[in-house]
Amino acid sequence: MSAEAAAATPSKPLSAPQKALRKLGLVRDIDLALHLPLRYEDETRITTLRDARDGQVVQLEGTVTHQEISYRPRRQLLVTLDDGTDTCTLRFFTFYPSHQKALAVGARVRVRGEIRGGFLGRSLMHPAFQAAGGDLPDALTPVYPTSAQLPQPYLRKAVASGLRRADLGETLPTGVLQSLQTTLRGLRAPLMSLREALHYLHHPGPDVSLDALEDHSHPAWQRLKAEELLAQQLSQLAAKRERDALRAPVLPLRSGGLHEQLLGALPFGLTAAQRRVGEEIARDLSRPVPMHRLLQGDVGSGKTVVAALAAAIAMDEGWQCALMAPTEILAEQHFAKLVGWLEPLLAPLGKRVAWLTGSQKKKQRTEMLALIASGEAALVVGTHAVIQEQVQFRNLALAIIDEQHRFGVAQRLALRSKMGDGASDVAGEPHLLMMTATPIPRTLAMSYYADLDVSTIDELPPGRTPIVTKVVADSRRHEVIERIRAQVAEGRQVYWVCPLIEESEALDLSNATATHAELSEALGGVMVGLLHSRMPVAEKKAVMALFSEGVMGVLVSTTVIEVGVDVPNASLMVIEHAERFGLSQLHQLRGRVGRGAAASACVLLYTPPEGGRLGETARERLKAMAETTDGFEIARRDLEIRGPGEFLGARQSGAPLLRFADLATDTHLLEWARQAAAEMLTHYPEAAERHVARWLGTKAEYLKA
Ligand code: ADP
Ligand code: MG
């Protein structure tokens, strides 16, 4: 019975392997057909022990000459096999009477496993075995990705029957096939049909070599990668078009309005990049469809003012805006900055900036909620509190999310839904502007974020000095402390960040507390503050205020200062246990300095494990930090080190990752898929739907947030 048929018969409970199949997402015949081998095993030959190399996976045939159960070092079954050229030991730590019977002395058996050398002679650990003789397969045997509950032979059979039954009819229209053929010609791969490609990879012929199968530039792989990328592009483009059918308030840029006034009131002129992205946003806002734009710009590139200018356009028309930030400190900073910029302009209009956080006193909160509901609050700044149910806007037109990667899909959707939540005066969708300081590498932007419009600030405000980064062993900590003393003596300020130790918040804290005590003692006369996530909010604010005002020379903190904090006089950032931080986090932290005119530095203190060296990825991360301050380069290397799965984090919780295509190498196919998706969706919508259903099936929920 097919997996599909099994699923449709509720009366019969699923067997363990059937359940395991579902867990792997292998429900339909086509899912099984698209479940491709991880690698292949060569069972076409019998090797002799004389020719077998240690570490090689071999298939042997011989006679059992000895069998015993040994109890040292633990209970195990030992079987000696003689193949006429040499002998070896088969070792089983788990075994059943059936093992003993099949591997009885005198039995002729065929075994397969990895051969290992050793002091007591060569051995195979837990080899697969069967009676000797019997046909050898004439082609390589596929090995599929699987789970513990799903034995390889069962899965192999399920895949084979799925492949037999699945509808593998062509989904690509002729024109699209032709453009694929042209693209593949550039990659020196002839076009294969999906059916041919799948048969080739699942059941390689006798003359197909391991190299050809494992080489992902083979035409069969190219076809699969192209199909997969096309499905991804189609689903995202469809989401985008769906959104384009929605309505949003038209917010034109009015001359003489708030936007112009704010520009005039700023203490600086915009950079060319800020002007450019500002125009891109203004163009979106002037259209009757909801904006869905990501504003990316390195730390310190000046995204906040761009957001404020966008808000000014909306507020000018009498609409409301919301700005949501991931932490209270960051929200507070935004609030202070935006009040400073906007309240003088809003006051004559009888409007205000409201403030919402979780820690707020009930009375103040009630007051704020009233301002928001009446529309007197033209702008609402806050944390997650902004998306809570009690918050009802009168006419929300623009929602801005800072550090968007820190929010999940659900939270973005909640903010968007604030417009149509009944209490609102208007139906439709608000415009959405998301901001991030973790720039998305181009290939990711083109694939996973294809449904987003992206604006990029690729220039820092003038007068910044580059940050010099040093990687220093913790054994030289005293030198770093001397450097801090010198900086503070010059009137500069210093951050010292301690790591987040995930397993234990208590340890995390003790680390920061100990460092705080150490620095307070070593730097007599300098005010050293401490900031961590478990402090009461009021205390956090007080500490942050002392540091912002320049009274406090050194701020020791856990990663609570990670995002967005802006104190231009700070010129030295010390990161303790830098080896424990992720690359983008290190980059964000480093971005806290170098915001003023003073020369700035970042010291990455690392502690190698007892008597050892740092791990490979930790070393790569620190090296990347020392070599570049360019956020895009950092993001690219981060992607290289971590792979897209982790890089994407929360955004992709619902969306399937690419299984076959590799964004680092398959850019040509990605370009093709982008164009092909647009063409198919416009001219062949049915084929497009069929293609997406085939590849994404139940996972084809469009990315709406
Ligand atoms: P980020 O993009 O990291 O959010 P911010 O918006 O916090 O950066 O800006 C960093 C600092 O640069 C702030 O103090 C901000 O006022 C200042 N700034 C922004 N744009 C300019 C500009 N064009 N010229 C000078 N300073 C600017
Ligand atoms: Mg910011």
TrEMBL record:
Its EC number is 5.6.2.4. The keyword Magnesium does not apply. GO terms for molecular function: DNA helicase activity; hydrolase activity. CDD domains: DEXHc_RecG, RecG_wedge_OBF, SF2_C_RecG. Coiled coil: none annotated. Residues 480-640 form the Helicase C-terminal domain. SUPFAM superfamilies: Nucleic acid-binding proteins, P-loop containing nucleoside triphosphate hydrolases. Residues 284-457 form the Helicase ATP-binding domain. It is an enzyme of class 5 (isomerase). Keywords: ATP-binding, DNA damage, DNA recombination, DNA repair, DNA-binding, Helicase, Hydrolase, Isomerase, Nucleotide-binding. It catalyses: ATP + H2O = ADP + phosphate + H(+); Couples ATP hydrolysis with the unwinding of duplex DNA by translocating in the 3'-5' direction. InterPro entries: ATP-dep_DNA_helicase_RecG, DEAD/DEAH_box_helicase_dom, Helicase_ATP-bd, Helicase_C-like, NA-bd_OB-fold, P-loop_NTPase, RecG/Mfd, RecG_dom3_C. Gene3D superfamilies: Nucleic acid-binding proteins (2.40.50.140), P-loop containing nucleotide triphosphate hydrolases (3.40.50.300). Plays a critical role in recombination and DNA repair. Helps process Holliday junction intermediates to mature products by catalyzing branch migration. Has replication fork regression activity, unwinds stalled or blocked replication forks to make a HJ that can be resolved. Has a DNA unwinding activity characteristic of a DNA helicase with 3'-5' polarity. Belongs to the helicase family. RecG subfamily. This is ATP-dependent DNA helicase RecG. The lineage of its organism: Bacteria, Pseudomonadati, Pseudomonadota, Betaproteobacteria, Burkholderiales. The gene is recG.
